[in-house]
Write a structure and sequence with these properties.
This protein is of the alpha/beta class and 404 residues long. It folds into 2 domains: 98 residues, Urease, subunit C, domain 1, CATH 2.30.40; 290 residues, Alpha-Beta Barrel (TIM Barrel), CATH 3.20.20. The chain is 37% helix and 22% strand. It has 16 helices and 16 strands. Strands 1, 2, 3, 4, 5, 14, 15 and 16 form an 8-stranded mixed β-sheet that branches. The chain has an 8-stranded parallel β-sheet with strand order 6-7-8-9-10-11-12-13. The longest helix has 18 residues. It starts with 6 loop residues before the first strand and ends with a strand. Bound molecules: N-(iminomethyl)-L-glutamic acid and fe (iii) ion.
Length: 404
């Protein structure tokens, strides 16, 4: 039988399957974009190896990384705000003075689709080069119907430009734009009655997100957004309990949200609500670090209640200008005390779950072959050391997209 170039075999490798490190040396066979077989290397037989191209022996395989929370598409830069925060101004103070998110809104509105795409491409390329095979991208810096749809179109186009799965999220309820300063309810109406229907009709958004916070939208306003999303068949998620506790996570859970994100100020009742609904808790250590937050998310309670924890870069120009998923693995451990295994699960299996994806983020027979081969001795090293350049091979939909 001649070798089949789409039938690829890795042998004698250490596998982190999305939940845990498997105890034995394993073999993985990929065929036609799918994981055709995962078995102990010793159990491989003739029918597995026949016609397969051997891709290497040894090393660590993980699922391709899933970055389930980013704001990669934006205009301008917030380096000036970074300096102001170092001088003592808080994130909330800068936002209230019309800077912060709104300064990115001004730059994003002024940019064309082509310019936004060109600016975001190297950011996405950085995530991909560090092992991401699925990346969620939010709107939320347009805040008009046309500018939000523009951002979502750019996000979709990014997914056609690089070999990566892009999930898009409409975050119209991110900040109150200046033209609606005295009419928050009018703006929420715009989100519910125009943005959500248009994004759904054009197939531009996979999910709908809100920022439930004192400097953003109230729980009652977020609830209207959730109801509008449901009317258009879109799943929801929420930025909740980042700077204070408004009960946003429990509200999101009541609306069967895929995830509630940030969560530093989440209380026990909120944790129980997430557990009850099966909503993923997405932790964002990059924002915690950048904002020099001191309130830790309730990791022990999340564990106790069995809430799946995802972790993500939150890559954005303000609160987390970090475009390196493996650094986030490290920060989840050093700042939030996740174990390396929890951090890896958070950026693979649980990240996929936070996006409602069931066919990626894990290594199991029949799933999509979105995989990373790393030059490390053990999976824990990916979280332990901050060291670019360890990605040996990246496999997207069964194709090798990076080889070193
Ligand atoms: O996830 N919390 C609100 N939104 C973003 C920050 C966006 C920004 O500062 O530009 C976040 O942290
Ligand atoms: Fe965010």
């Amino acid at each position: 039988m001649p070798p089949n170039p789409t039938r690829r075999l890795w042998r004698n490798i250490t596998v982190f399957d999305g939940e845990r490190e498997l105890p034995e040396p394993m073999a993985v066979l990929v065929e036609d974009g799918r994981i055709a077989r995962l078995c102990p290397d010793a159990a491989l037989d003739e029918s597995d190896t026949r016609g397969a191209t051997e891709m290497g022996r040894g090393g660590v395989m993980t699922p391709g990384l899933v970055d389930c929370h980013t704001h990669l598409v934006f205009g301008g830069s917030r380096a000036d705000e970074f300096t102001r925060r170092l001088e003592g101004a808080s994130y909330a103070q800068i936002a209230q003075a019309g800077g912060g998110i709104l300064s990115t809104v001004r730059a994003t509105r002024a940019a064309s689709e082509t310019e936004l795409h060109a600016a975001a491409l190297p950011r996405l390329a950085a995530l991909v080069a560090d092992g991401a095979t699925t990346v969620e991208i939010k709107s939320g810096y347009g805040l008009t119907l046309a500018d939000e749809l523009k951002m979502l179109r750019v996000a979709r186009r990014l997914g056609d430009t690089l070999p990566v799965r892009v999930c898009t999220t409409l975050l119209g309820a991110h900040a109150l734009p200046p033209e609606y300063r005295d009419d928050a309810d009018g703006y929420v109406r715009l989100v519910c009655d125009e943005m959500i229907p248009a994004a759904a009709a054009e197939g531009l958004a996979d999910t709908v997100d809100v920022f439930c916070e004192g400097i953003a939208f109230s729980p009652a306003q977020c609830e209207r957004v959730f109801e509008a999303a449901a009317r258009h068949g879109l799943a929801v998620k929420a930025h909740a309990e980042q700077l204070s506790n408004l009960g946003g996570a429990a509200l999101a859970a009541r609306h069967r949200a895929l995830s509630a994100d940030h969560l530093e100020y989440l209380d026990e009742a909120g944790v129980a609500a997430l557990a009850e609904a099966g909503t993923v808790a997405t932790l964002l250590p990059g924002a915690f670090l950048t904002l020099r937050e001191t309130q830790l998310p309730p990791v022990a309670a999340l564990r106790r209640h069995g809430v799946p924890m995802a972790i993500a870069t939150d890559a954005n120009p303000g609160s987390s200008p970090i475009f390196m998923p493996t650094l986030i693995l490290n920060l989840a451990c050093t700042l939030f005390r996740l174990t390396p295994s929890e951090a890896l699960a958070g950026m693979t299996a649980h990240g996929a779950r936070a996006l409602g994806l069931t066919d990626t983020g894990r290594i199991a027979q029949g799933l999509r072959a979105d995989l990373c081969m790393w030059d490390v001795a053990r999976p824990a090293e990916l979280a332990y050391a901050v060291q670019p350049g360890r990605l040996r091979q990246r496999v997207f939909d069964g194709e090798i997209t990076h080889e070193r």
